[in-house]
Design a protein that fits this description.
The complex is a heterodimer of chains A (103) and B (151). Chain A is mainly beta and 103 residues long. Chain A is built from no helices and seven strands. Chain A has one domain: Immunoglobulin-like (Sandwich), CATH 2.60.40.10. Chain A has strands at residues 6-12, 15-21, 44-51, 54-61, 70-76, 83-90, 95-101. Chain A has a four-stranded antiparallel β-sheet with strand order 4-3-6-7, with no helix packed on it. The chains are: A mainly beta (103), B alpha+beta (151).
Chain lengths: 103, 151
């Protein structure tokens, strides 16, 4: 199981700014190991964000997103106390969900 | 004791074996492989359901002029256009141009920031695809002093 995400959700002017730091290797599939063999790609493919259980944003990522990805976006109308849940899924089928409360 | 690097190498090898057994056909139902393997901007946008893109001042891309480390280039995309269903982030000279795609619902603002790898200095593009399949883009040149794709 992967390490937890760090999520910060701050309300400002009726919206909430969500900042997420995920812990993932994001191997590009371009690099070679010591024996000259290509290290297979291993990256987050799907990212989903939900506000109080309702999906508000989905994303698809390629291997070109940096290691330990950072994501920032804004949810309209989210207020303090609302729950924001972020889920990612990688191309090996591993996934992780973490939740934060808007402050 | 195994180092982190070795552990990763092993788990990658195991996953490769698993994949070759065919027991795990495609994990991601939604993941659009064709788009992420596209080698040109036009192909990637087409695979994402957009027509030939038009440059627009309503789409904004943010990023550094010079990135010291190509492994971590902060890029942002935003648009003030209405009825946008997707925004894409593309790096023209990467092995696969498409970096990330965001599906927008009415509940989020069309404004995303993330960090990308860049193999070399290149134009980066933000593309907004509207509900009726029109594509609008903005571009910015980012110079990379140390590439982030090779080994």
């Amino acid at each position: 199981m992967a390490d937890p995400m760090r999520i910060r959700a701050q309300s400002a002017g009726g919206n909430a700014t969500i900042r997420v730091l995920m812990s993932h290797e994001m191997e590009s599939g371009q690099r070679k190991d010591g024996n000259g063999k290509i290290i297979p790609a291993w990256h987050i493919q799907d990212v989903t964000a939900a506000l109080n259980g309702k999906t508000v944003m989905t994303a698809e990522w390629g291997p070109a997103v940096s290691k330990n990805p950072f994501l920032q976006f804004t949810i309209k109308g989210a207020k303090a106390g609302d729950k924001v849940a972020i889920t990612w899924k990688d191309n090996k089928g591993d996934s992780r969900t973490d939740e934060a409360t808007v402050s | 004791m195994q180092t982190r690097r070795e552990t990763l190498k092993h788990s990658a090898a195991v996953a490769g074996l698993l994949a070759s057994t065919g027991l795990f056909p495609q994990y991601a139902q939604a993941f659009d492989k064709a788009a992420f393997e596209a080698k040109s901007m036009a192909d990637a946008i087409k695979a994402m359901g957009g027509s030939a893109p038009v440059e627009s001042k309503d789409v904004t891309i943010t990023g550094p002029d010079i990135a010291e480390n190509g492994a971590v280039v902060p890029l942002g995309v935003s648009t003030s256009l209405a009825n946008v269903k997707r925004v894409l982030l593309l790096v023209e000279k990467n092995p696969s141009v498409l970096v990330a795609m965001f599906n927008i619902s009415p509940d989020v603002e069309a404004n995303f920031s993330t960090r990308s790898k860049m193999g070399q200095s290149s134009d980066v593009y933000a593309v907004a695809i509207t509900n009726d399949g029109k594509a609008f883009f903005a571009k910015k040149e980012v110079k990379v002093t140390l590439g982030g794709c090779g080994g």
